[in-house]
Structures
1.
Amino acid sequence: MRVGLVQQKFYGSKDLTIKESLKSIKKLKEHGAELIVLQELHQDRYFCINQNIDNFDLANSWEDDLLFWSNIAKENSIVLVTSLFEKRAKGIYHNCVVVFEKDGLIAGKYRKMHIPDDPGFYEKFYFTPGDLGFEPIETSVGKLGVLICWDQWFPEAARLMCLKGADILIYPTAIGWFDEDSDDEKQKQLDAWITVQRAHSISNGIPLISVNRVGKELDNSCVIDGIRFWGNSFVVDAQGSFIYRAGDKEESVVIDIDLAQNENIRRVWPFLRDRRIEDYSEITKRFIDSV
Amino acid sequence: MRVGLVQQKFYGSKDLTIKESLKSIKKLKEHGAELIVLQELHQDRYFCINQNIDNFDLANSWEDDLLFWSNIAKENSIVLVTSLFEKRAKGIYHNCVVVFEKDGLIAGKYRKMHIPDDPGFYEKFYFTPGDLGFEPIETSVGKLGVLICWDQWFPEAARLMCLKGADILIYPTAIGWFDEDSDDEKQKQLDAWITVQRAHSISNGIPLISVNRVGKELDNSCVIDGIRFWGNSFVVDAQGSFIYRAGDKEESVVIDIDLAQNENIRRVWPFLRDRRIEDYSEITKRFIDSV
């Protein structure tokens, strides 16, 4: 499977940002990409940086956005993983991945299940938690286990996608540093973020793609200074080994992923064979208090 | 919490091996260790390297082993994590961690839940799967989430220990390389082993200790040449950052672990707050076949 990924900054407006994305998509297609993955909320700035009810207007274009990206998938004859702000009903909005088939039809949607909320990342204000569960999306290039950003920290999400037959895990992301943190702390955060995702690959015997944004975006509410999105998009194989690691600037590349390795690695490290499923039921508890 | 750990080789006999362990325990106690962790099946060679019914005799000393290590814990006034071959009943044997209190009493037991089985590691032949579940062991130094080796690859085990209030995860281990594998493959295996465990620390906000054996042990059945146990015992803090990493030779060290960090890191990265427990129930399935 030849995958293209686009690690990009916000260009000051939705129009300019999309224009840059389209250039990258065109280039990746020319290099043979069959599947292209864009970062989380790639159309615009990361508006969750503060709480402002006017920002919900950014979802007013939801229906048009679907048509637009459907056309892009069709024109380029690619499977396209987009990450959009879904307006579902009055007062119900989702952080939603829409996957388009090569013919422009919608292959499937995933609504972000785990919603973060901390200074600079006020997603619980904007996004209703997803209600589509953890379902891989069947496409012409394979069964895509698409999850979004904060989902990265939850092994349950990766495991469920794997148990439902996903061929690959894909995480569009928007994560970054605060400039005021020490270099040591920044390095620890980045390292933890990469490590936890590589572990999903290892414990499930499945390749993984993570696509993050870059650039600094300011908080005009002045609660924080802003977020410097750390890039570092990466691809690992079914053993969690790096196939590709980006830096912290814009990059768009095509990567070849061998999906046949999933079977091979699971024969050597048969973790799925040995799960003690009869003893896992308390995973569905919030916490188990001492008696 | 000041923890001591002993990364050791097999000295050709049980007596000689234990003698070396006791020297290390004495030294670690002198350096202030309150808790000491020994590696998996530390009394003897890694007998699961081949299938031989005579090896079950190694468990005949089970009751004596309990008395012996109880005395060591009491004499040194330490909490002691031992890893023993339990003879429970005729034909029922377990790979069992026994934790002793400073007064020599048994604080708790953990019977290995996930049992591996592949060339050189024939554990399904020897060990009945554990039936005590994933229960942390309450001790005077904290609540110990003790798991064993192959359990390392299963995020469910770490999560359940954490949900049940474990303060720390502890993995006695016996894992190694085959000399005939390439250096690149060996590095990938070691890296995956470290990565998957660090991820348990990160996703649960909990420190983790992993203690592995060293040295080469031969397979006298000649199915394989032998196993070179790779050492590389390590300790990470509640953010998954290394506090200590051993090499591939014998080492015994004391490490200070700050259990107060668990609360601090979970406030900054509140993964436990955001779990979608209502959507995790299929974790208890073996696999979810497509309809």
Note: The two ends of chain B are 51 Å apart (CA to CA).
2.
Amino acid sequence: MVKTKFKEVSNSHKLKTYIAIPRIFSKIKGGYVMVSSELMNEYKKLMEKSKEIIIFDSIKSLLEWDMQTKMPPRGILLRSQQLGLVSQIEHKMITNPEIGRLIESIMKHPDYDSLNEQQKRNVYLVKKFYDEQTKLPERLVVETAKQEAIANEAWKKGKAAKDFSVFKPELEKLVELKKEAAEILMKVKETPTPYDALIDIFEPKMTSEMITKIFNELKTGLVSILEKCVSSPKQPDVSILKRKIPIEVQRKISKELAKFIGYDIESEKAGGRIDETEHPFTTGYYYDVRITTHYYEDNWASSVFSVLHEGGHALYDQNLNPEWIYQPIGSPCSAGIHESQSRFIENIVGRSREFWLYFLPKLNELTNNAFSDVNLDALVHAVNLVKPSKIRVEADEVTYCLHIIIRFEIERDLFADKVSVAELPQVWNEKYKDYLGVKIENDSEGVMQDIHWAAGLFGYFPSYALGNIYSGQLLAKMEKEIPNWKEQLANGNFNSVKQWLTKNVHSYGNLYDPADLIRIVTGEEINVKHYLNYLNEKYSKLYGF
Amino acid sequence: MVKTKFKEVSNSHKLKTYIAIPRIFSKIKGGYVMVSSELMNEYKKLMEKSKEIIIFDSIKSLLEWDMQTKMPPRGILLRSQQLGLVSQIEHKMITNPEIGRLIESIMKHPDYDSLNEQQKRNVYLVKKFYDEQTKLPERLVVETAKQEAIANEAWKKGKAAKDFSVFKPELEKLVELKKEAAEILMKVKETPTPYDALIDIFEPKMTSEMITKIFNELKTGLVSILEKCVSSPKQPDVSILKRKIPIEVQRKISKELAKFIGYDIESEKAGGRIDETEHPFTTGYYYDVRITTHYYEDNWASSVFSVLHEGGHALYDQNLNPEWIYQPIGSPCSAGIHESQSRFIENIVGRSREFWLYFLPKLNELTNNAFSDVNLDALVHAVNLVKPSKIRVEADEVTYCLHIIIRFEIERDLFADKVSVAELPQVWNEKYKDYLGVKIENDSEGVMQDIHWAAGLFGYFPSYALGNIYSGQLLAKMEKEIPNWKEQLANGNFNSVKQWLTKNVHSYGNLYDPADLIRIVTGEEINVKHYLNYLNEKYSKLYGF
């Protein structure tokens, strides 16, 4: 990897002395390489356009954050107009033909190869996004946006009425539109199948064939662990998690957790904040990254793990390479890599015995001794209860990926015309019985439980499981480099872990596609084994198998 | 006034049947008038552009609100980029030559006179704004923006060091740039003097000659009342205002005040909210109008009156004619009329005996009987203490306008080259001695107390005093139409007053310039007498003269 900082090129370029001469010098690894100033001019223009899009998009994120957290109810009437206008302006910025012209001018320039790795990646990322956004016909984009809104409404109604037939016709139309888009994107992106073109939006270069292979191995491993956990006579007492903790106290717990992981929400240099929403989320960019959580008086652990989960996302967004801010490479790598960071902090750290060795006394102190009678191992087992369930968002570490695998297999077959929308409930229910051994009573707790399909988000689900797999693989590598990380954790020191993640994941931004990043950081291809080893080791101790 | 709703024209125009024929019918007062469909098309295009600008500007307001209330400190690094980009895009939208073309096409169209009053006003307002924004040379706009930032920094430093010489050179440069702009705007707007062109930005069509006449009369009246108050043996005991009230309780008081004036922040249809900032302000548009306040534990009255003041602004913004939303006429009339609404609620209502007759028991209840020993008349006198002071923002009702008159006279003479920047401190201190009888010890409590000049806001100050004058004149009219309004207020009923203000001020939006609005609503020209009568009557009772 060439370690040149693009900033130096850019700065030297500002010097008037250099502007007058046709070629400027770009420092690379101590040597000098000639970069055409004409090419650099075009490159800088492209980066300027890209910067505007990135900043503009961060404004849209703030409008959405405010909508979820602070906006008075009637504000939605103005907000929908604001969001519509912002999307319209953003779309114009993204599909500006000048961007197409600059990309072509740069890529066909005889000196193109003199650009360094980061510059080339920037051009590649802008091109990819530009192609995705410009190759879909306007008619299709507009129709899809409309149908997404209609399907979303039908989903809400159908879910409330436990009646799939309300959702079905609108979902059918949406799937048809998505198939049409996938066919077009398949050609642009040169993916093996149309569905792969959708996956590529969230997990670049990943294919359904690769995922099928990975998920099959994962499934076998998970089912084996699940059976051992379920059949073990040693089961946790989860009543500890239902002790009533006042919400004001839970807010203090959140602050303590944020402090622990190094997500600053209180100091004069804070770049974060925690607010409250129905569904927790993370949003922001570098200097201003905000998370939300939800407090339940009789489920204190819910907000503990959602703060750790969203905090994991936030650390990623905050610790991208600061020199790459406003550049395409100064963005997260993929949905899966993002999820690896949240699951790492939530599960690998937050549900570990060592974390609770440190945090239980803190928790007890903050709650005015509400946990003084609680045994450490009992608590650790309780927060790691393994139990097959019907609802993905409530699933534990062992069963979670099985929920995802079911969704992936269904999406894959749907887009390969092997299963129809009408057959979805039946296929869903069968798979839940096969993989998780649970009986779905109605489609609201079944095929209609998630918003994703109603929102047109096909190809997104695999990222959740891939994130878990990545987190296990990153853990294996980290354990070699920081053998005593658990000891540090038990002493309340999270710093080494945080720095390791920043160095090995956050700071790479979007320089590589996810599979490449994993190979570069861990030294091997994506490998399910590490995540399964982690689970086996952990749950065999907890459940005594 | 033609009472046609533009909405009807617009809707009928959508019908395909009408689009094919060259002229469509616009319903006016039950009859039909021919409006060229070509003209209507151009008009609709202009309104579409104007709507985009209005919505886009509301996004900028949200960015600014968030910056003052919620943004984590490091977020400023991203926010400044966002605000820079938004200003740049907004400037392009406003100065889009297509707007100039549409204006000309509409105004020169042979059927122009067939547009109704509201449509013509919309075109007029777009044209006025377009001219203001396009006639100033780019160089001057950029230089001024830079100098404002520099002057602002110098002002902060100078104020902290109590040293006008730090601020002086930067203010001199800024005044020169503002004079240049004023000269250009004077020609565009055809105002008598350059300074009048600046006043016109905030108080359309108002001139320094008119203001001088009005303020001279006001000054005489105020000085007379002030002398009587100060020399009266009957003086209030203000220690009541210094009782410590926990901030959590003060927040509840704010909610109660918001509920009382009909500013909804709690219901499922709420269109407002109250947050906390160093300096209270109001921002928003129709459905989403937010106010802020500041709580001091040992000065509970401060937030009471700031919530009433900002609440008055908010009621105006929320109760503009809903049919005019996103149109230029669907905006407030002027800075002065806006201030008349905030001062009406803060002072005429909020500092009245009748209001406290109703609210004192509420206050006592909310504060757990912290005021059970307090006599109503003692409290009313305390919140109406008249005392000459050096600082404008802390001034009472009687002296407030004298602070403004001083600033106006100085600005007027500055732009007429009768006084120089170097002479400002001396002129300031002399006027404070003459009008208020106070001795300014240093320039931080003198000429550098306000941010306005450092921010380039010349011509803004008069609006504050005009707002008070308007509020008195509106009161005189309202008293004729609702003779028992004070009785209603004493019973905790604010509804009639609110409805009267909405009908007579809010709902007119920007259909008229301020002087016309006052004439239409009150039946007479701007008349200082009413405000002076109000003060005389109120303070003669309080101070017994």
Note: Chain B touches chain A at residues 52, 55-56, 58-59, 62-63, 66, 70-79, 81-82, 85-86, 89, 264-265, 267-273, 285-288, 290, 326 (CB under 8 Å).
